[in-house]
Amino acid sequence: MHVEQVDFVSMPTRDYARAVEWYRDVLGLAVSDYASTEIETPNVTLTFWKPEEQGEAFVPNENGIALRVEDVEAAVEEVRAKGAEVIGIQDSGVCHMGFVKDPDGNVLILHRRYAPRG
Amino acid sequence: MAELGVERADFIGVPVQDLKRADEFYGKTLGLRRNPNSGERWVEYELGNVTLALVSPEAMGPDFEARGHQMPIALRVPDVEEARGKLEAEGVEFLHETVDSGVCHIANFADPDGNTLQLHRRYAPYRDGTLP
Hints:
By secondary structure, chain A is an alpha/beta fold. Chain A is built from two helices and eight strands; from the N terminus they run βαββββαβββ. Chain A starts with a strand and ends in a 5-residue tail after the last strand.
């Protein structure tokens, strides 16, 4: 089987408009040219879905999508100032990770690797 | 772009309880490319545009519980039915019949930890006439 790429990741939400606005206004990401419920990171599309509309329980994603920023601490303070819930910052030994939550409780990681690979 | 300056999505975390079992599934069953810099505790798969990172007790500590995310990840394949047939032959169970959305084919399945993945192929051109 040949997987070419990830076309999109579906983020669970309870409110499409609130989710899209948050990713646009707090994270500064672009709304898709093709669909008003999709957000474009520079390399992969985030779309939103309502599990409850399909008879499934809503469970926020705890494991995170890591978004690369230049300065994790500054980025965390910026999203905090915009009202986002901040869980905390960790130094993994190779990268800094700032854990924050979107309005649905999905975890995002403001991320910067500082150690060389390998 | 606002001042936050997100440069790219570095990885998508995939929670797994049994790292070896997940490594086998993503590497052998799905045939994805394992990042050669992966370590004993942190394993990554490179999918062309973005990385999947296996988040395991080895990385997070013994109390880590992988509960299976509810965040379907759409994997682009040339032909959904063909890829589905190959995975079913490997014993992968699909969650429903393949859906034709009107612009794409999509088929949901789960990894051994219950994380939802999708085989996906858009066949309809976008508004500007291009195809993915």
